[in-house]
Design goal:
elongated; mainly alpha
């Protein structure tokens, strides 16, 4: 029987992996979400962000995604070790 902590760790692993792969596949989605989170809608974005800035933002999101991918691998390894140790401990 898995504890609630391990299930929470596995859930965060899945959520982190989903966010990283969305950012790798569609960096524009991450950029739009970030601007909307801070209350800067589409009109503000079109007026203040040019193609060069958008290209820089995409590159920054991709770089962050690759760092996040390394984090996903490390987190998955840590969760796997935790689950293995709990299974070895027994019921």
């Amino acid at each position: 029987m898995m504890s609630a902590v391990v299930m929470l760790l596995m859930l965060t692993d899945v959520a982190l992996a989903t966010a990283v792969f969305v950012a790798l596949a569609r960096p524009d989605v991450v950029i739009a979400f970030s601007f909307r989170t801070f209350g800067l809608g589409g009109d503000w974005f079109e007026e203040h962000v040019g193609e060069q800035e958008l290209s820089r933002l995409r590159n920054l999101v991709r770089l962050g995604s690759w760092v996040g991918l390394g984090t996903v691998f490390a987190w998955s390894f840590a969760v796997g070790v935790m689950v293995t140790l709990m299974n070895l401990r027994g019921p």
